Amino acid sequence: xxARLPQLADQLLLIERELRLLGWWEASSPxxxxxxxxxxxxxxxxxxxxxxxxxxxxxxxxxxxxxxALPSAxxxxxxxxxxxxxxxxxxxLRQQLEAFDALIGQG
Length: 107
What we know:
This protein is mainly α. The protein has a single domain (5-24, 41-105), classed as YqcC-like (de novo design (two linked rop proteins)), CATH 1.20.1440. It has helices at residues 5-21, 32-35, 48-66, 76-84, 91-105. The chain is globular. The two termini are 12 Å apart.
């Protein structure tokens, strides 16, 4: 078992917490069409916070629960910084994404 798994699970919960604190956690999933976008981060169909909730967190939780191979790299922070560069209220969320990237980078 990868020693990072407990830390990654905790990090995913912290990311979810920040999304909730920002009021960006949604009760209803976007349509299947929006989730099926072929663009990176579903930029043509979802806001970045929606992608984090409905694609990123969902996929990472599945990977952890099923013991699948972890990604070899992560660049989530770069997208967050580009998306929210003028949004100081996202600082804590960006810190959590940076910590996630660092954990994945340790692999």
